[in-house]
Amino acid sequence: MTTETFTFTVNKTDGAARTGEIRMPRGVIRTPAFMPVGTAATVKAMYPDQVKALGADVVLGNTYHLMLRPGAERVARLGGLHQFMNWPYPILTDSGGFQVMSLSALRKVDETGVTFQSHIDGSRYFMSPERSIEIQGLLGSDIQMQLDECVRLPCSEEEAERAMRLSLRWAERCRIAFGEQPGKAMFGIVQGGAVERLRIESARELAAMDLKGYAIGGLAVGEPQEVMLRMIETVEPHMPREKPRYLMGVGTPDDIVEAVRRGVDMFDCVMPTRAGRHGQVFTKHGRMNLRNARFAEDTRPLDEHSKCTASNTYSRAYLHHLVRSNEILGMMLLTWNNLAYYQELMAGLRKAIAEGRLEDHIGEIKEGWVRGERDSKAEIGQHADNIAMPAEG
C-alpha cells in the first residue's frame, strides 16, 4: 500500500542486515533493493514493463545526462520523467556530481558549485547545489540526491577532507533548496575517501541534518573490495537506523551480498546492463563470457531454473552466435537475464533476512558461484582436449 508521505520501516533484522519497505505515493520499494540504472530515461535494451515484471520497484535516472539532453525544462514541459519514460513508479535521480567529475574534460569546482563542459558538444554549464535540486525537481524525481564532490581513490587525506567538507556544506544548501516536499525525499551522501575519521565525521554531520535517507558515496571507484567494506563498517554505526542506507554505484553480486550483510538497503550499478551489452552474463552459476568459443555448441540455457525467459529458453549456443554477430537481440536477452538475476538475488536476500537464515543463504549463493567456476574450468579443459585430439584413421 502506498502512502502520501515518505516512510521507511525495518521489518526484520538478521545481524546487521535489514529487510524493510520504503513507502511513497508512487509505490513501495522493498529493501534490500537493486535499482536498475536508466541513465538517459531508459534502462538500456529493456522495455519498462519488462523491468517492472522482473521485480524492480524503482529505477535510477541521471541528472547530468538528462540536463544535457533533452534538458530538464523540456522534460518538465512534457509531463515529467515518469510520463516521459512510461515508468509510473518511484524514480531516484543522482545529483550529477559524479558524472561532472568523471566525464567533463574541463571543470572548475569552487564553493558556489561546478562549472563544466558538456561531453557531448563542449558547451559550458554551471551546476550549484540549488540548481541540482531544481533540475531533479523539474524531472519530477521521487528521491533526490544532494550535490557532492566525489574524489577518485586513492587520494591524499587532505584532498579527501577538502571534498568531504565541501560536500557537507553543499548538503545543507541542498536541504534548504529541497524544503518540504510531501511524499518525496532528499538523501545526503557520506564522503571522506578511505579515511575512517573523515567518514565518521561526514556521517555524523549529515545525520544531524535529519534527512530522509543517507547514501555512502565515493566507493567502488577502483579501490579493493576490502577497503569498500571497511568504510561501510566504519560508517554504519553512525547512520540513523530508522533511515534507508544507499551504497551508490555498487556493484558486483558479491559486493551487494557483502554490503547487505553489513546493513545496506539500496544499490544501483550499470554493471548488469553494461555487461549484458558486451556478452557477459551473471547467473547463480557465476559469471560467463558468451563470446568464448566453448559456448558455440552448448545447447543448455543460461539457467533452466530461472523464471526469466531469456535465462531458461535460449541456448548458450544461440546467445553466443548473437553476441559474436553483434545482433541487437543478443544485447537485449543478456541484459534481460542479468537484471533478472540481480532481482532474484535481492528477493532471495530479503527472504533469508526475514527467515533469520542470511548467513546460510549467503553460503549457498557463494557455493553456487564456486561450483559454477569449477565446472567452467573443467569444460574449458575438455573443450581444449577435444580441439587438440587428432582425427582417427
From TrEMBL:
Which molecular function GO terms apply here? tRNA-guanosine(34) queuine transglycosylase activity
Instruction: Please list the reactions this protein catalyses.
Output: 7-aminomethyl-7-carbaguanine + guanosine(34) in tRNA = 7-aminomethyl-7-carbaguanosine(34) in tRNA + guanine
Name the GO terms of the biological process aspect.
tRNA queuosine(34) biosynthetic process
Summarize where substrate binds, as residue positions: D94, S95, G96, G97, F98, D148, Q191, G218
- EC number(s)? 2.4.2.29
Q: Which UniProt keywords apply?
A: Glycosyltransferase, Queuosine biosynthesis, Transferase, tRNA processing
Domain of life the protein comes from: Bacteria
The protein's annotated pathway: tRNA modification; tRNA-queuosine biosynthesis
User: Which cellular component terms (GO) are annotated to the entry?
Assistant: cytosol
Gene3D superfamilies given in the database record: Queuine tRNA-ribosyltransferase-like
Positions of region (RNA binding)? 249-255, 273-277
Q: Does the keyword tRNA processing apply?
A: yes
Q: Where is the tRNA-guanine(15) transglycosylase-like domain?
A: 16-366
Task performed by this protein: Catalyzes the base-exchange of a guanine (G) residue with the queuine precursor 7-aminomethyl-7-deazaguanine (PreQ1) at position 34 (anticodon wobble position) in tRNAs with GU(N) anticodons (tRNA-Asp, -Asn, -His and -Tyr). Catalysis occurs through a double-displacement mechanism. The nucleophile active site attacks the C1' of nucleotide 34 to detach the guanine base from the RNA, forming a covalent enzyme-RNA intermediate. The proton acceptor active site deprotonates the incoming PreQ1, allowing a nucleophilic attack on the C1' of the ribose to form the product.
Which HAMAP family does the record match to this protein? Q_tRNA_Tgt (MF_00168)
The similarity comment for this entry is: Belongs to the queuine tRNA-ribosyltransferase family.
Quaternary data: Homodimer. Within each dimer, one monomer is responsible for RNA recognition and catalysis, while the other monomer binds to the replacement base PreQ1.
Under the heading NCBIfam families, the entry gives: Q_tRNA_tgt, tgt_general
* Name of the featured protein: Queuine tRNA-ribosyltransferase
Upper classification of the source organism reads: Bacteria, Pseudomonadati, Pseudomonadota, Alphaproteobacteria, Hyphomicrobiales
